[in-house]
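Q: what sequence does this backbone want?
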């Protein structure tokens, strides 16, 4: 079993920045991809960014050029640097980890962290 703990959410003004962290623990040897999803009230959960063990990244079109996913292997932690934040970025952000792909039945979820972008 894998445990994921997110941190770093909060309230920021439009144009501001936040960095989210996701620390993984447990049986992490089988984890090959980690990423971030978000879900706004009344909307479906969507993939924001993903990062494979080999360093391949994937971003939602809505965040390309503004968000960056990265990792610190020594700390078993993945980050999401969010810049130029917009009100439409407001959502609960969830860390996810899987053996092959994100979001599937065998993947693991963090508890979520709230990001609110408002003036």
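A:
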């Amino acid at each position: 079993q894998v445990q994921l703990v997110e941190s770093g959410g909060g309230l920021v003004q439009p144009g501001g920045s936040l960095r989210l962290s996701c620390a993984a623990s447990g049986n992490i040897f089988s984890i090959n991809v980690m990423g971030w999803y978000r879900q706004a009230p009344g909307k479906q959960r969507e993939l924001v960014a993903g990062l494979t063990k080999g360093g391949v990244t994937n971003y939602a079109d809505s965040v390309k050029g503004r968000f960056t996913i990265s990792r610190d292997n020594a700390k078993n932690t993945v980050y999401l640097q969010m810049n130029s934040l917009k009100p439409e970025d407001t959502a609960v952000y969830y860390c996810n980890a899987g053996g092959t792909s994100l979001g599937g039945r065998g993947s693991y979820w963090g508890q979520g962290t709230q990001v609110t972008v408002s003036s």
